[in-house]
């Protein structure tokens, strides 16, 4: 079945990985719904540009992924959700005894709970349409761990578990659920951190990337948002019809260690 004309809802998609995935899906002829918690002219302009460039329908819907009602309302307002990409996420780094409660709650809400609420709302639409794809953007930290990232690691491990449950509950239907587990990805947010890290360590850009940022990524290369978009597109294809309940690592060998 061709993916052209399908509709994808991508959470947290006005920048970075989410926008990269939405762009690759639009390039393949998939209509897209962009989302974030802001409601700026530039948010809606992103959707308009995707529509113009790729000849698809695209729109932006504001929804705060920390709020259960907003998560479900996003799917309801979209009206159609053949492909759900749960991408929204935030991060905070601190030792366990010093980890702020409000940061823990926010990370669990946005990185994990939102995927439960959107999936619960989207599955009835997929079943009605007779086809569906749930793609959860987890992380290498959904399969392994690092110190000082307790909430993020817990949430991403939870996303992998939620993915498996979703796959089992839809196993006899033309609906699949999988998780993409990126390592470090070169996004505008990561790019902006490089100059400060160069100053902090007195290193060149290349040294910072290889010896600081990508110390756990054996390839010593960032993954790209285009590669993650291509992985998502594969999971939407007929070739992946029997790929469900699993993880696909795009991490330069991180989880092979």
Automatic annotation (TrEMBL):
This is D-beta-hydroxybutyrate dehydrogenase. GO terms for molecular function: 3-hydroxybutyrate dehydrogenase activity. InterPro entries: 3-OHbutyrate_DH, NAD(P)-bd_dom_sf, Sc_DH/Rdtase_CS, SDR, SDR_fam. Belongs to the short-chain dehydrogenases/reductases (SDR) family. GO terms for biological process: monocarboxylic acid metabolic process. NCBIfam families: PHB_DH, PRK12429.1. SUPFAM superfamilies: NAD(P)-binding Rossmann-fold domains.
